[in-house]
Amino acid sequence: MIELEGVPELIDPVMVAAFEGWNDAGDAASTAVGHLDREWKGEVFAALDAEDYYDFQVNRPTVWLDGGTRKVVWPTTRLSVVRVGGEKPRDLVLVRGIEPSMRWRSFCNEILGFAHELGVEMVVVLGALLGDTPHTRPVPVSGITSDPDLARTMDLEETRYEGPTGIVGILQEACTHAGVPAVSLWAAVPHYVSQPPNPKATLALLNRLEDLLGLRIPLGELPEDARAWQLGVDQLAAEDSEVAEYVQTLEEARDTAELPEASGEAIAREFERYLRRRDVGGPAGQGPGGHATESGDASYLRDPSSGRTRPPKPQRPETGRRKDADPPQDPPSGPDEGPGPSDG
Q1: Is the peptide bond before 260 cis (omega within 30 degrees of 0)?
Q2: What is the pLDDT of residue 283?
Q3: What is the pLDDT of residue 329?
Q4: DSSP 3-state helix, strand, coil percentages of the chain (rounded to 5)?
């Protein structure tokens, strides 16, 4: 029995979830939910029992001192609520945790139990995968659903993926079987610079979430972090001619693949997004509606004196893909990333 004492009645609630692990390349998805929680000052109202779902030899607890008292923090999944103000205020139920080690069906049922008790109208799960995408281009974000009606009304892809999956795919299917509208948003992270953090991918997920829910999300320092990240990767890639050549190959493939999209319908969709985001007089360095520019041109890279931590050196490509990379993953072919442990 789920008891939600102290949680106020919510306004048009939507659940937004992300999980650390295989479905979180570059920590892009979990960082996006963490950003929402931080910017809107989320209040945690529930945490799943870590003993039920986690192998502590895989995800170890941590010990810390609180005024001389030793405390243990257990790896788990926490739920918080944030209220989004504006002309039409609404609430977001944020779910942030770690991909469970076991009992995935029970885990999803517990999450759905909270969704039911809170009157959640839709579940949006964020994920990030490794792909053959250049870091110099806008981050591809795919919107996926198993609901044909939702795919049609919200301009999403109806999933046709077959193969190993993670908790994102399992939770989405659990929502579908429970009759809860569910969408997953997937950002593609360059496999040759996959180490976290990846603020550019996080920013792309938040931008797509804005479009999906019709929200205005405060971005804070994310646009500046994204520019600094890209500049750092540019500089490091330029130091290795083989990596630079490989990035150029990816750029050419990406640009060629996008040529058919330059249709009147596609241009009209982009212009509609522009109008929704339009915000004359926004902060410098941001595009319409306070969005960071992701055009890949010189203006996107102006941050030579940032002083922020440089991203890890890009990994040298081996026949177009790292040998230790996960199975081939490209946004159009199916975004679920990696196999999940068996249910216990």
Answers
A1: no
A2: 38
A3: 43
A4: 40, 20, 40
